[in-house]
Design a protein that fits this description.
Shape of chain A: extended
InterPro entries (chains A, B): SCAN_dom (IPR003309), SCAN_sf (IPR038269)
Order of helices and strands of chain A: HHHHHH
Distance between the termini of chain A: 65 Å
Largest sheet of chain A: none
Number of helices of chain A: 6
Strand content of chain A: under 5%
Structural class of chain A: mainly alpha
Protein name (chains A, B): SCAN box domain-containing protein
Helix content of chain A: over 70%
Radius of gyration of chain A: 20 Å
Oligomer: homodimer
Organism (chains A, B): Cyprinus carpio carpio
Number of strands of chain A: 0
């Protein structure tokens, strides 16, 4: 059976709704960090958009203070690692800071092992 | 009366304690954003330092989720404003996001007034 094609208006509406509803916390974080004040934009509109995406990023796992803070720390931690370690940790999408620390420690230990073997 | 000079060891200790205890939440935020993984540094040490300064920045006003999130939004909001507006808002050290929005709206309105007058 072939699905009946939807009118273009419905398609656009569906896409717009899915774009906002279907974003993962990580996508909300990226939106939060990339929002800009447009030429004609008003600061309070920017602040609303920032608050909206920040809440969807940081409250996804609950509203406990430590959980929220660990997410802010996790973002900064990943951005401060050496580039290859940072990419490797990010690929694993660690759900917690402790997991990210473990991944970074493992990757750096493995890399220094490779360097030592190469030097022998 | 002249104060007896303290031994150099005590001076260094006092300075080190004051450096950590006496930092304002804003200084802890700056430390949080500027910490780096040193050459010989271990990721878990960096994560500890990040967690420490992030907690001192974000928990200074209480551990309510909305209060914490508003601080993260405030930082991002100020960094996204036009440079002069951003500096002006930062000079006033707004304690809340709402105050920062008001300051930014006022500064931009005042600036556009100046531009309009200049153009006449």
């Amino acid at each position: 059976t072939t699905a009946r094609p939807e009118p273009p208006g419905i398609c656009r509406l569906k896409k717009a709704v899915l774009q906002r509803v279907g974003l993962s916390p990580e996508q909300h974080r990226q939106r939060f960090r990339s929002l800009e004040l447009t030429e004609a934009g008003r600061p309070f509109v920017l602040a609303q958009q920032l608050r909206d995406s920040c809440r969807k990023w940081l409250l996804a796992g609950g509203s406990d203070a430590e959980t929220i803070i660990n997410k802010v720390v996790l973002e900064q931690f990943i951005s401060r690692l050496p580039k290859r370690t940072s990419q490797w940790v990010q690929c694993h999408r660690p759900a917690s800071l402790d997991l990210a620390i473990q991944l970074a420690e493992d990757q750096l230990a493995a890399c220094s092992g490779v360097v030592n073997q190469t030097n022998q």
